[in-house]
Amino acid sequence: MEAAGKEEISVEDEAVDKNIFKDCSKIAFYRRQKQLSRRATYQASLDSATIGKDSTKFQIISETTKVSLLAEVYGIEGNIFRLKINEETPLKPRYEVPDVLTSKPSTVRLISCSGDADSLVLTDGKGDLKCNITANPFKIDLVSQEEVVMSINSLGQLYFEHLQIPLKQRAAKENKEDTSVDASQEDQEDLGLWEEKFGKFVDVKVNGPASVGLDFSLHGFEHLYGIPQHAESHQLKNTSDGDAYRLYNLDVYGYKIHDKMGIYGSVPYLLAHKLGRTLGIFWLNASETLVEINTEPAVKYTLTQMGPVAAKQKVRCRTDVHWMSESGIIDVFLLTGPTPSDVFKQYSYLTGTQAMPPLFSLGYHQCRWNYEDEQDIKEVDAGFDEHDIPYDVMWLDIEHTEGKRYFTWDKKRFPNPKRMQELLRSKNRKLVVISDPHIKIDPNYSVYVKAKEQGFFVRNHEGGDFEGVCWPGLSSYLDFTNPKVREWYSGLFTFSAYQGSTDILYIWNDMNEPSVFRGPELTMQKNAIHHGNWEHRELHNIYGFYQQMATAEGLIQRSKGKERPFVLTRSFFAGSQKYGAVWTGDNTAEWSYLKISIPMLLTLSITGISFCGADVGGFIGNPEAELLVRWYQAGAYQPFFRGHATMNTKRREPWLFGEEYTRLIREAIRQRYTLLPYWYSLFYRAHVAAQPVMRPLWIEFPEELDAFGVEDEYMLGSALLVHPVTEPKASTVDVFLPGSNEVWYDCKTFAHWEGARTVKIPVALDTF
């Protein structure tokens, strides 16, 4: 549900316009890193390295500024390496992302197997993995069985801007020396060192520029995946200058497809796969992040140095990945696999596994912005029974509240919410209602008054409560980064606090990027202040993660720990899988959006978030009957299965398109329920063993090169291959059947084929 014009706020035209969002050329830290990174080369002081129980520490010194950084290399249980780089003596602490790692990772002592002033070789004691650190210029090679699989800073793109004394204080001290970027006044404006302009907005940076960056070269790899959320292909594409993948959570209504702009969520984690090995890179940073990718084909890659290792590398391709973040520190985890399953376990060891969903949430969900009133709910609910279509969950969007005040009910439309819930309960159904992070500024609204009294809102840089416009009009935003705010918010879900709620009511967190209608890029100013005096720029991408965390905890407390929560969130970060489900936001009722939902969900699935889905039918616009049927057929085989539509669309309950289409949609939804035990088992495996529910073919067939780029079909667990029909008026579909030793059976007709081939299968509208 989204920024699509309300009576009091008309933002639809603005929200669809991509010009209100930045492209790379408008992002100052990207421009700086592209222009200036080659000027700085770093040298490691390995002769003074200290090898401790938990980590190996050494200095890295910039040859131009002579300022030193502190590097720490950790070995972590389960074949994981961690590299942290920070200022040795920062002006003040730099932000390090809390709460994402499930606990402090158990370290494995690294031992030095050789070393001098020029190089240091660390191993975890098993000997199969080595970390080779070169002093000048600074570089790290990750070596497995005498083969370099990954190099860090081999392109010399390590970049680290040091915090500086505010300009006003510096002028008073007449000390203008310590600038990490030497620039004229004109350059300072162009590079956005102290101020960054975008449209009518000016972002003031109190301590100057603070961005970080680092490059990783993956040897022999040309297939990379991950870093959601983008409406893009499953396999990551090469980026050209100015076209990096952007990780910055934004409210983008009717987002453009095949585009690398940031949308609702960010997981700064990618996987690389080749025959014989899978790797992962988890870049733990919650500020705005850009990722560039460049694959060099094998023929172009030559080495000056020869020798047994170099000779092997010479014939291999290489993919370079360049991570750039606006602030924070460099904190990166290298997941060394070697199998896809190993990488999933390594990532889940750090960030947790998918929460085990309650069974009802794996059924079908019916939603609309908005069901009008209790009578409307009663009639829609009865319609499912009358047409013999199973469903489990009814949803209410923002209009169910009293003037967009969350935790309230519109007294005219929903005068007796408990009675409405009892009707649903009598049929063993549930209700989900929406709760957004913005709170209407209203001295008569108890949630606002209590939060205001306790100082629970995000502040502006002048010290007052941050105020922005969202659905209720002028609103303040709860500071979910504060543990006390989360604890208080969790308490709002108790039956005594949330009048009219019952134990069949569950929650939907929307607009939590956070969405601010008249803010820069429709979000919060970066210099807003959070708990601990941290600027919003440091933690923007983790804001929604914290709201979902607090909501899930509230539902657990409500049942005294006896029932699993269900919470759907639009905004997310690494680790959000621990708290519930995610969806792909405000999609459009077009065939291309049905098609792109498959790679979008595959990318979420392999980055830990198995409970994911796309709005069936498309949120925006009116789907033709054929498209709606095909979307139900596809959605029935996707993890989160919800029909949803925006307020200005025609009603589209499953029985409104004529008897034949009703029958087809009924069959698709019933097929979902037929497979419910299988779905539940798959989610159990995701929960206990970190195995994705929805799997790209390369996971199940990691040695089959032809499977590495497939994104129009996928595996559900290890048993079912699904190829949705995503083209109008299709009469045949080409289905790739992997596995030379496999025999594949059509689960309806029992026709069978041998694997490692593409078969042309005839389809009608009832084929799925």
Q: Which shape, going by the Cα principal axes?
A: globular
CATH architecture of one domain: Sandwich
Q: Portion of residues in helices?
A: 10-25%
Indicate the radius of gyration in whole angstroms: 26 Å
Distinct helical segment count: 17
DSSP summary, beta strand count: 41
Low-confidence runs (pLDDT<50, min 5 residues)? 1-16, 175-180
CATH fold title of one domain: Immunoglobulin-like
* CATH superfamily caption of one domain: glycosyl hydrolase (family 31)
- Per CATH, the class of one domain reads Mainly Beta
- How far apart lie the N and C ends? 28 Å
On the 0 to 100 scale, the average pLDDT is: 93
Strand content: 25-35%
How would a textbook summarize the main sheet?
Answer: 10 strands, antiparallel
Structural class: alpha+beta
Annotation keywords:
nine-stranded antiparallel β-sheet, alpha+beta, Gal_mutarotase_sf_dom, Immunoglobulin-like, disordered N terminus, single chain, Glyco_hydro_31_C, 768 residues, 41 strands, ten-stranded antiparallel β-sheet, alpha-1,4-glucosidase activity, 17 helices, Glyco_hydro_b
